[in-house]
Amino acid sequence: MKKSIVLTLGLFVAMLLTVSRPCSAAFVIGGENGWQLSTDGIVDVFATYATTTRLPTGPRSLSLLSFGGTEGTQDQRFGVGVGLLPSVIAFNVKAPTTMGVDSAVRVGIYPNIQNNSGQRFDTSPSVDFREFFYTAKGAYGELLAGRALNLYQGKNILNDMTLLTAGTIPSNAFRGGTTLGHIGYGYLYTNFGPQIRYTTPDMAGVKVALEIAEPYKISSDTSKTNSPRIETEISYAGIIGPVATQAWLSGLYQVAPRSDTAAARPGKDNQSIGGAAGATVGFSGLNLMGSGYVGRGLGMLSVQDGTLDALLGNTAVDANGKERLAYGYLLQATYQLTPSFKLGANYGTSRQEKNDTEPAGPSIVKNQESAVFMAAYNLNKFTQFVAEYIYAQNTWMDGAKQHSNQFALGTMFYW
Q: Residue 244 in contact with residue 259, Cβ under 8 Å?
């Protein structure tokens, strides 16, 4: 009971104290017998404007840039909300080190700030409990159990400069959610999900992680998810001479049966299999990054986007129930011009191929690409201002294109 009182009081005080450091625990409160409570978080607010050409005429799949009632006209929209990352407040509870093992719990609460429907009296923005897990770390490595960011393409998104900005701005249908960054425009969204993960100890900068996770639907005809999703990652981080270097390789595999009543391949299996890789190098204020992915049964937005088939037009699999090939990459350069001012630019593309035996039908999106130009200014260690220009383009299999010019101006506060 005494321990609970200490932690409760610590949580209350933590929410009131002034913060001093970004991207890490701003303060740590000690409890009884070595227990500790810390907190970290971000408040981000972006004003965005996008002008997007109408959906090309003819039978075709919808577009991330305009679906939701604006397909038939030129879409112009202004909004104020979060960027690619929602605001977040996280609490970390660390137990006393016992038998050489450090155990901790993290709870991350990610609220949006904008109203879901855009109505004046809609005062219930969505709140996402993306992180809720515990870790146990010792000489053997680390065990993670709970809800956390998945491994496959995880570092692809974490090393995108737009993670803490806006990046590509989607259609009005996403009003209550985040922007896209380069999701669907250079990498796929790995998502947060329940999992059990083991990571080896650091071996001269190299770590290997294996994740057994909740399976996802591969297509809209998936009847059941009766086998786990397996993800893995090999990563390296270190300094080679004057160059700070990071590299990674990740993989994904899952199988799921199709419904016995499916129009195509009833009772047969669909498979998701993919690989991703990337590297960063940094020296003298310049940081360069390249990442990419390839696989089948992945989709064009979120990894294994089976439930989006009806909206975006059979992306992970075709009308014959066969997996499509998907691939993409992101190239990026940032330069720290002064201690407070950073410039950045990146370009990403996500693509899919039609299968040779795929039946004729509405034209589907072949390529989604966007380029982002960013300027960021740090007023101090915990306050940042960002300005971005984004150009996005979608191309369908029949060659038709849709263009979008986008602007974002925002601020972030870290602790």
A: no
| Number of residues in the chain | 415
Residue 113 lies in a domain: no
Name the domain count of the chain.
1
What pairing do the DSSP bridges indicate for beta strands 341-353 and 75-81? Answer: unpaired
Give the global pTM: 0.90
Contacts of 325 (CB under 8 A, 6+ apart): 294, 295, 296, 352, 353
Instruction: Please give the pLDDT value at position 174.
Output: 77
Residue 1 lies in a domain: no
Contact present, 305 and 316 (Cβ < 8 Å): yes
In a domain, 116, yes or no: no
- Beta carbons of 410 and 44 less than 8 angstroms apart: yes
Q: Give, in degrees to the nearest 5, the angle at Cα 377 between 372 and 380.
A: 145
Q: Can you give the residue range of the structural domain that contains 401?
A: 40-86+150-414
Q: Tell me: the pLDDT tens digits for 269-326?
A: 999 999 999 999 999 999 999 999 999 999 999 888 766 655 676 578 998 999 999 9
Sign of CA dihedral 146, 149, 154, 158: negative
Residue 319 is given by DSSP the state T
CATH number at 49 reads 2.40.160.10
Asked if residue 122 belongs to a domain, the reply is no
Query: At which residue do the structure tokens 């806006």 appear?
Result: 166
